[in-house]
Amino acid sequence: MLSARPLDGIFVVDLTSNVAAPFASAVLADLGATVVHVEGPSGDDCRRMAPVRGESSAYFEVVNRGKQTMRSDIRTASGRAALDDLLRDADVFVTNLRPGKLAGLGLDADALGASHPRLIHAALSAYGPTGPERDKPGYDAVLQARTGIAAVTGTPDGSPVRAGVSILDVGAGTWLALGVITALYERERTGSGGAVATSLFEAGASWVAYHVAAHQVSGEPSRRHGSGHPAFSPYGIFATGDGSICLGIGGDGLFARLCEAIDRPDLATDPRFATNADRSAHADDLRIELERTFSQAPATAWAQRLGDAGLPIDAVQQPEDLLLDPQADRTGILIDLPGTDLRVPGLPITFDDVRPQPTDPRID
Hints:
Structural class: alpha/beta
Number of helices: 15
Strand order of the largest sheet: 5-2-1-6-7-8
């Protein structure tokens, strides 16, 4: 029987702020680790990210769930002594200080490794632990721009757009948590700790791997495709009689089934749409034809009809619609945040059908 709290007994010291690195340690906390989040004297900047309620915020509650919190100025002798006391018992040290500042404080992996040989040192930065830009500051949107994500997001005739969620914060945080868990497993075999590092830059580079490869294959520059996809058609968001649906047709067989389900056999025999490559080349023409048909009924009706035909489709909803979504309720993806009146999506993983749940060990 798998445990839903496999990291029970692991102690994590979290010297982080903002979103990405705190999210990494929130994952560890959900998995059972005891996490102490060390904030500066004025508190984590994340507490002041809108919307704010009291001394906290929606962002802070999400990325610092399940953690103990304490405030300390590590630049003072007493603050540094308090941090050192925590590190003596720690299995993992998570930080998002810039590499140069980390080294200047004697908190880099080399400095701590000598006195804490079993410690897993987990560092998340904007641009990575090495290279000419390692000490540059950066936020999610900035690195979406740098790595090309913004350039391929948005409509073809529009401007580059930041993705609507903080994909690099959450992505880099997830990679860091995965690295920590891997390092803990390795420590069980070797008895030694080590350094795990990732960055918003590296996470962003990994997300655009297809585009980098496609450019080398085709010789063409990457382009924006709106909600569509450069490799598949029809794929993306389509207008209906009263809203929008998202349709994913990844092969010729599915396209034939779509044409049958919407009573448009003419599309199946149109040479412009004969193969996926043909449809991708004539994606705009196909969109016009499909939206002409989709305009005849509301989004929910199309979602039901095409879903019943075994096609990958869904209506476009707001994030908050998950609060009343029967599938969200049945899967148990929504969790209660202890100490708050908030329900939010938890970890997207279960262990023998049990989803990890955050505890409420915070001490302010």
